[in-house]
Every structure is written in C-alpha cells, then in structure tokens.
Amino acid sequence: MKTTLEIDDALLLAAKRAALDRRTTLRALVEAGLKKELTTKPGRRRPLKLITHPGGLPPELNLSNRRAMREWFDAVDETSPHFSPGEGEQLFLSLGAGAR
C-alpha cells in the first residue's frame, strides 16, 4: 500500500544512508523499523511520583489546560514563599507538562 509521510529532512537522509549501507531499500528499512516498534513491548516506565499539598490542589490551578498550568507555575515562582525561583518551572517540567 502506498502512503505519504512527512519526515524530518535529516532523519530521512540518515535513513537513506542506512539503507545504502545495509544494501536494502528505504521501504524495507522503514517496514523493519515499524515492525520492530509495533512488536516490542514498552520498557518499564518510571513510577509517577505524586506531589501532594495539604488541602489538595489550589482551585485556580487548571490541570486540563497546559498554558494555564504553565502560567500558574510561573506565577508561583514569582510570588510564593514556598517555592524558590525556578522551582515551579522544575515541578512543571517534572510533571511532563513541558510541551507548550
């Protein structure tokens, strides 16, 4: 089956070189990679460390909106006596919420 994919230029170039080095086709390399990825069980994930606060989450912290969450953590960094500068940012990133 034919399909079209958008692949990063550098990654595509590296894949083409790898295919040449292995004396195979790009198609065979991509198929092998997909088969491996789809049949390999995911590795063990690090356990999630829950950070709790007496009284639960602040009502103004919106966990369903990453942008609002980042703004809340930025504000906490600047105003909270409980966080040192940058600590809110570190907490935000450790929660895996660093994508904007």
Characterize the structure shown:
49% of the residues lie in helices and 0% in strands. It is an all-alpha fold and 100 residues long. The chain has two domains: 9-39, no CATH class; 46-100, no CATH class.
Structural classification: mainly alpha
What separation lies between the terminal Cα atoms?
35 Å
How many separate structural domains?
2
Series of H and E elements: HHHH
What is the count of β-strands? 0
Radius of gyration: 22 Å
Q: What is the count of helical runs? A: 4
Principal-axes shape call = elongated
Main sheet properties? none
Strand content: under 5%
How helix-rich are the residues, as a percent range? 40-55%
Mean pLDDT, all residues: 78
Low-confidence stretches at least 5 residues in length (pLDDT < 50)?
none
